[in-house]
Amino acid sequence: MQLVRSTSDLLKTISAHIDQIKTVVSDIATTATSQAKHLDGFKTTIHEIDVSTQQTAAMAEESKAACHSMESEAALLLQLISQFDLGEETSSGTHEASQSPSPKNIVAISRMRGMKSPKPADHARAEPSK
Fold first, then answer.
1. What CA dihedral angle connects 65, 70, 73 and 75, to 10 degrees?
2. Mean pLDDT of the chain
3. Which residues contact 100 (CB under 8 A, 6 or more apart)?
4. What's the average model confidence in pLDDT over 73-81?
5. Does 96 have pLDDT greater than 90?
6. Could you tell me which residues are beta bridge partners of residue 95?
7. How far apart are CA 96 and CA 30, in angstroms?
8. Sorting pLDDT into bands at 50, 70 and 90, what band is 89?
9. Could you give the CA distance from residue 47 to residue 41 in angstroms, rounded to a whole number?
10. Which of 97, 99, 105 has the alpha carbon at shortest distance from 123?
11. What is the pLDDT of residue 114?
């Protein structure tokens, strides 16, 4: 009978150890699930940072292209403006143009502003009276 009792005690001890192992494995599974959720959060955050970085890079490229375009347009505008002779100042304090803009200049300015080229009749109206 002693052998039966000692076997019973050993089985109870083994059962208790199995319950402890079951608890530890359950805790490990819960922790692993929590870590997986946190990793998904990090993954989402890193993806959002990546998208934001790509958008910023695209905007920087667009800004660079716009700057180059503006630089070209400014150079063209300076070139066009330099062709005008403002003449001498009159007694009333205004400048009198010694020449009117050429049709070529009017077409170039119109194109730069994104407008249609003026018709010859429009040019005649655009010339200042002398």
1. -110
2. 81
3. 126, 127, 128
4. 89
5. no
6. 89
7. 88
8. low
9. 10
10. 105
11. 62
**Is residue 80 very low, low, confident or very high in pLDDT (cuts 50, 70, 90)?**
confident
Q: What totals of helices (H) and strands (E) does the chain contain, helices first?
A: 3, 0
DSSP secondary structure letters along 57-119 = HHHHHHHHHHHHHHHHHHHHHHHHHHT-----B-TTS-B--SSPPPHHHHHHHHHHTTPPPPP
Please state the φ and ψ torsions of residue 11, each to the nearest 5 degrees.
Answer: -65, -35
Q: Phi and psi (nearest 5°) for 77?
A: -60, -45
Q: Which amino acid is at 19?
A: D
Looking at residue 84, its pLDDT comes to 80
Which residue carries 């003449």 as its tokens? 87
Angle made by CA atoms 82, 84, 86, in degrees to the nearest 5: 115
Tell me which amino acid residue 103 is. Answer: P
Looking at residue 127, its pLDDT comes to 47
Residue type, 123: H
Domain boundaries, the chain: 1-67
